């Protein structure tokens, strides 16, 4: 099927052609016809599957074919992060390029003034993070009573970040007669309860767990916790391409890894929730342009990163779910380009490795970095033996030197690899 078979406004078809889109992705194929009818929609889809166009094309068609009766915003898209809001905004602008429709973004971390002016000038489409939107509503800068379509993008992420009370407050300000589309990678019980309250008889579309693209070669690297930073540095020495995205579990770990790599002479940027919006935009722009070859990010902050040139993804910390694993490594190998993804794993990651392998239906390739000394002595400051709970696994504080326990020397052996593959 081609996009031309969808009954979309001619200006949208022109934009689709300009963008080079030919065949709809599975989520677009399933969601667009349903959304065009005005029915509520509940979609399960990963980031990178084309879901932005899946919800944007239908509401753009609606705005173009149904005259406005007020100057109020008619479409509201809620996102969990500022980066994702910017990405959604960019996609909407691309699809609406041949129209006069206006879209504005509203999120925290920047001054209110430009957003207040955009709202005062009038906009049909509002892409917002919940907290800042409520700030504008409390100041009387935005009137949500004209919203005809509400989109909740990456709803599970918004639940994780504690946005549900804000979202409920926002929904209380919307007309009851509206179309609501919700997209989420997972559906915890709390989200199920919210769906029952906020959506009316929604059509359910599930793409399931997508396999990593065939263009990605991915593997795991067993390593003692105390040597993770040393192994990461050794890995980077062997990577000639300079477009590497590194994931950590926490923002504090991201800062510490960035400090270690900077001391080793690497130009690195950092992306996490404690950085200001200006710092995050600057880091992402420098990474996209190649000025900074290495970007260290947490999962929440990385939502919205869409850089085609990423050659490598390195999971300094293994992600907690298979969904997140696929989402992370899918940042490389884009648009038929080859990419590589490496994940550092420790003994305590055993259960998580098995969970990801069960979800993928195949074992993860184990690798040992040739020439790396798995029994080396490292300083406490460089070892960073942080536990999964965010504390310390013990020892190595200050400038002391830490010897890797002799019992971990066998981590490079077949015996250790077998412990990771057991019970699969």
Topology:
Layout: H1 10-19, H2 26-36, E1 41-44, H3 51-65, E2 75-78, H4 82-95, E3 103-106, H5 113-121, E4 125-128, H6 130-138, E5 149-152, H7 155-160, H8 164-172, E6 179-184, H9 189-198, E7 203-206, E8 216-222, H10 228-237, E9 244-247, H11 251-263, E10 268-271, H12 277-289, E11 294-297, H13 299-302, E12 312-315, H14 322-329, E13 339-345, H15 350-360, E14 365-366, E15 377-379, H16 380-383, E16 401-403, H17 414-421
Parallel strand pairs: 1-6, 1-7, 2-4, 2-5, 3-4, 5-6, 8-13, 8-14, 9-11, 9-12, 10-11, 12-13
Antiparallel strand pairs: 15-16
Helix pairs in contact: 2-3, 3-4, 6-8
Tell me about this structure.
The chain has helices at residues 10-19, 26-36, 51-65, 82-95, 113-121, 130-138, 155-160, 164-172, 189-198, 228-237, 251-263, 277-289, 299-302, 322-329, 350-360, 380-383, 414-421, and strands at 41-44, 75-78, 103-106, 125-128, 149-152, 179-184, 203-206, 216-222, 244-247, 268-271, 294-297, 312-315, 339-345, 365-366, 377-379, 401-403. By secondary structure, the protein is α/β, with parallel strands linked by helices. The strands form 3 sheets. It has a 7-stranded parallel β-sheet with strand order 3-4-2-5-6-1-7, with helices on both faces. Helix 2 (26-36) packs parallel to helix 3 and helix 3 packs across helix 4 (82-95).
The main β sheet shows up as:
7 strands, parallel
Looking at CATH, the homologous superfamily of the largest domain is: P-loop containing nucleotide triphosphate hydrolases
Average pLDDT taken over every residue: 84
CATH class category name of the largest domain: Alpha Beta
**What's the CATH architecture name of the largest domain?**
3-Layer(aba) Sandwich
Going across the major beta sheet, what is the strand order?
Answer: 3-4-2-5-6-1-7
The computed structural class is: alpha/beta
How helix-rich are the residues, as a percent range? 25-40%
In what range is the share of β-strand residues? 15-25%
Report the end-to-end length measured between terminal Cα atoms. 39 Å
Rg calculated over all Cα atoms: 23 Å
Tally of separate domains: 2
**Count the helices. How many?**
17
Number of separate strands? 16
Q: Which regions contain 5 or more consecutive residues with pLDDT less than 50? A: 385-424
Shape: globular
């Amino acid at each position: 099927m081609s996009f031309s078979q969808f009954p979309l406004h001619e200006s949208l078809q022109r934009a689709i052609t300009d963008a080079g889109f030919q065949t709809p992705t599975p989520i677009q194929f399933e969601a667009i016809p349903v959304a065009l009818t005005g029915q509520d929609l509940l979609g399960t889809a990963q980031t990178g599957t084309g879901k932005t166009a899946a919800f944007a094309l239908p509401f753009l068609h609606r705005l173009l074919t149904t005259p406005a009766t007020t100057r109020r915003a008619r479409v509201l898209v809620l996102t969990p992060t500022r980066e994702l809001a910017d990405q959604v905004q960019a996609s909407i602008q691309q699809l609406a390029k041949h129209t006069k429709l206006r879209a504005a973004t509203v999120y925290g971390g920047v001054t209110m003034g430009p957003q207040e002016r955009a709202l005062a000038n009038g906009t049909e489409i509002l892409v917002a993070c919940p907290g800042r939107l409520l700030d504008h509503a409390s100041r009387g800068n935005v009137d949500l009573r004209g919203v005809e379509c509400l989109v909740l993008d990456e709803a599970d992420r918004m639940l994780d970040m504690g946005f549900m009370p804000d979202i409920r407050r926002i929904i209380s300000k919307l007309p009851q007669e509206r179309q609501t589309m919700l997209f989420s990678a997972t559906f915890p019980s709390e989200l199920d309860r919210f769906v029952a309250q906020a959506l009316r008889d929604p059509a359910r579309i599930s793409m399931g767990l997508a396999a990593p693209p065939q263009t990605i070669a991915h593997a795991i690297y067993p390593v003692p916790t105390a040597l993770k930073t040393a192994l990461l540095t050794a890995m980077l020495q062997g990577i000639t391409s300079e477009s590497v995205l590194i994931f950590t579990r926490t923002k504090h770990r991201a800062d510490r890894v960035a400090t270690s790599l900077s001391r080793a002479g690497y130009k690195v940027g950092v992306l996490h929730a404690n950085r200001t919006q200006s710092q995050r935009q600057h880091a992402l722009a420098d990474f996209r342009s190649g000025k900074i070859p290495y970007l260290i990010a947490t999962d929440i902050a990385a939502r919205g990163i869409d850089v085609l040139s990423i050659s490598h993804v390195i999971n300094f910390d293994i992600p907690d779910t298979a969904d997140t694993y696929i989402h992370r490594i899918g940042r490389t190998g884009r648009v038929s380009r080859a990419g590589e993804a490496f994940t550092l794993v420790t003994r305590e990651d055993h259960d998580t490795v098995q969970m990801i392998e069960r979800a993928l239906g195949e074992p993860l390739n184990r690798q040992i970095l040739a020439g790396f000394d798995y029994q080396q002595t490292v300083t406490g400051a460089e070892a960073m033996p942080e536990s999964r709970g965010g504390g310390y696994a013990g020892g190595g504080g200050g400038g002391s030197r830490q010897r890797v326990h002799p019992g971990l020397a066998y981590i490079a052996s077949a015996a250790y690899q077998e412990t990771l593959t057991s019970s699969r």
